[in-house]
């Protein structure tokens, strides 16, 4: 991001050691955002039911800290519970803090498809900013969404929905979602959830580096459609453990979109239930009985050193694309264990992919 931005981050962190405005109740928030002190501490705050913790319109150079325990009242609504927006800001968590959605009050095994109306957790709209050291726990549904962001670094964030695994009551608890954004990096973080660990639906120059994904639906691009574009996306040095899929590109059948210059490098998968690597053009289905369409070209794809294990009932690699949709791919994978042999189609001519094995 350049030396000027690095200097901004350094100055912001130095400010955190000087003065602060503590916000203990929602009524204090508006004044804190407008005040001259640019270090705001959200400390042991309870947000009333049906109210968004509105952290939009933060002044440039603000340091926003979460401390203690932040909780939310119960209501059936769409949320979000937290909304953060600004430019040149630092969002961070103090050691020992937790932002707790107490999602068990909403979980019913149906996620966003029915049952209780569940609020999304946290939405970000940030430019030239850093989010670091946050502990987010027990989201009702989608956990952490960054849309319309530019030059954003998210680092050392723990998205912990492990409690929702009990009796499989959590669903659609997506971890990191990125859309319509440019130059966003998510790194050194951990996700334990019940849907996509990371999903990019659109964006340019997106990175997902050195992260751990547990229990969800793996690392995904898409679903692609509605003229969305994903360009220059890198996933590197990540682990996907005990998840439904490992890595995935999914394109909606009959809808225009494009995926280009994508790299999956040094990815370890372990104990995957369904597909180790899956790339398909017939979403929302994922079976070879439904023909794919070619409206989403996938070009300049690199799959390098993607390795690990799939459960016996799953498949190691499955590709299901219309002829001509894929071009200029490079492939190096070693995924084993899956006993399900699925037919594949649409692999670029001359490329050796261990598909259907």
From TrEMBL:
Q: Which GO terms describe its cellular component?
A: extracellular region
Q: Which residues form the signal peptide?
A: 1-20
* GO molecular-function terms, A-Z: polygalacturonase activity
Q: What family, per the record?
A: Belongs to the glycosyl hydrolase 28 family.
Q: Which residues form a coiled coil?
A: none
Q: What is this protein called?
A: endo-polygalacturonase
Q: Source organism's superkingdom?
A: Eukaryota
For this protein, what is the EC number?
3.2.1.15
What Gene Ontology biological process does one annotation of this record name? cell wall organization
Indicate whether Signal appears among the record's keywords: yes
Which UniProt keywords are present, listed alphabetically? Cell wall biogenesis/degradation, Disulfide bond, Glycosidase, Hydrolase, Repeat, Signal
From the UniProt record, list the reaction(s) this protein catalyses: (1,4-alpha-D-galacturonosyl)n+m + H2O = (1,4-alpha-D-galacturonosyl)n + (1,4-alpha-D-galacturonosyl)m
């Amino acid at each position: 991001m350049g030396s000027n931005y690095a200097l901004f981050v350094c100055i912001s962190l130095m400010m955190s050691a000087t003065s602060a405005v503590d916000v203990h109740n929602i009524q204090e928030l508006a004044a804190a955002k407008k005040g001259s002190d640019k270090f705001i501490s959200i400390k042991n705050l309870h947000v009333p039911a049906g109210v968004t913790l509105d952290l939009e319109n933060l002044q440039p150079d603000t340091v926003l800290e979460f401390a203690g325990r932040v909780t939310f009242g119960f209501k059936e609504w769409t949320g979000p519970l937290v909304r953060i927006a600004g430019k040149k800001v630092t969002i961070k968590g103090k050691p020992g803090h937790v932002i707790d959605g107490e999602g068990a009050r909403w979980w019913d095994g149906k996620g966003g498809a029915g049952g209780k109306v569940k609020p999304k957790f946290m939405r970000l709209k940030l430019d030239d900013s850093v989010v670091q050291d946050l502990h987010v726990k027990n989201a009702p549904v989608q956990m952490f969404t960054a849309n319309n962001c530019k030059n954003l670094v998210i680092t050392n964030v723990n998205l912990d929905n492990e409690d929702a695994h009990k009796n499989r009551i959590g669903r659609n608890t997506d971890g990191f979602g990125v859309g319509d954004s440019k130059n966003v990096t998510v790194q050194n973080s951990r996700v334990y959830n019940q849907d996509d660990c990371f999903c990019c639906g659109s964006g340019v120059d997106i990175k997902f580096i050195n992260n751990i994904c547990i229990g969800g639906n793996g690392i995904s691009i898409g679903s692609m459609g509605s003229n969305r574009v994903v360009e220059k996306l890198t996933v590197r040095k990540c682990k996907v453990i005990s998840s439904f899929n490992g890595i995935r590109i999914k394109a909606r059948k009959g809808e225009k979109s494009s995926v280009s210059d994508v790299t999956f490098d040094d990815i370890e998968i372990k104990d995957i239930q369904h597909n180790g690597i899956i790339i398909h053009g017939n979403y929302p289905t994922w079976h070879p009985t439904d023909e794919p369409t070619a409206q989403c070209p996938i070009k300049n794809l690199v799959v390098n050193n993607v390795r690990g294990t799939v459960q016996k009932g799953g498949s190691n690699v499955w590709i299901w694309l219309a002829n001509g949709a894929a071009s200029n791919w490079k492939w190096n994978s070693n995924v084993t264990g899956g006993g399900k042999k699925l037919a594949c189609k649409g692999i670029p001519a001359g490329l050796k992919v261990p598909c259907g094995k």
